[in-house]
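Ex. 9. Protein: Acetoin utilization deacetylase AcuC-like enzyme.
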Amino acid sequence: METLYITHPECRLHDMGSWHPESPQRLDAIGDQLLSSGMMPHLAECEADVAGMNDILRVHAPEYLAFLQNQAPRHGYRSLDDDTAMNPCTLPAAWAAAGAGITAVDAIMRGKAETAFCAVRPPGHHARPSQAMGFCFFNNIAIAAAYALEKHGLRRVAIIDFDVHHGNGTEEMFEHDDRVLMCSFFQHPLFPSTLRDTGASNMVNVPVPANTPPEALRAIVAEQWMPRLKAFAPEMLFISAGFDAHLEDDMGQLGLTEADYAWITRQLVQLAAESAQGRVVSMLEGGYNLSALGRSVVAHIRALSKM
Ligand SMILES: [Zn+2]
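Predicted structure tokens for Acetoin utilization deacetylase AcuC-like enzyme:
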């Protein structure tokens, strides 16, 4: 079955200034590499439905939504912190990015696809229930996972985050929620420098120092993630797919390459085949070296679609 490729034109219009690494060109780089690699004709392209208010409110506070609406500028930029800013198109892009995950869940649950990749921005995994941070406004992967649990009645879902940064917002939203198992590795210390020792047994979030070799990261996947994921037997997998742990990405100091992203993705696709009827929703998070990002997404999608 084809992999769905979901995006939305609004996602390209959000911009935080020409200096900012979280740029619209990231989506162009992904699209270009999918075309030049010959992958695009094998994907089922689809435009995201915009998220509904209730979908956002499953993980965010109503006051936070009102705050964002108040902050949204009519012209120019409005900074929310040192590296997170809004332009007039930010909120429409954020609603579309969140909606992409919901579109993916619906399509997969209706049997139209087994797997989906959402090429969306702004990214989401740093967004807290009531705070934008780290280029993120709405926590897209959390919104999609909560939707699958509540709207489709799934009992267990897994969230896997291989971005170089800690998915602090996602962890905060689901710690102690037994319906969710979250597995990640992340460079530490590094933004957002959150190490939450909450004792939550549903969090397998493994901090690693700078320059941890790819073999050690694969070992974390094989020895720490996979046994827990297999025992949990998720009914759907959600991937916070950040590609800033790439060797060529200077946002972090880890050394993953396309082959590693393909290998990690194959482990997850195999697990999904065992317990989740193959269902995987992957959503773009970080990844700022445009060439490495595009190539890595191609490798990731190739593995998602078992090509
Ligand atoms: Zn990141």
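Check your answer against this statement. Residues 163-165, 242, 244, 285-286 surround zinc ion (CB under 6 Å).
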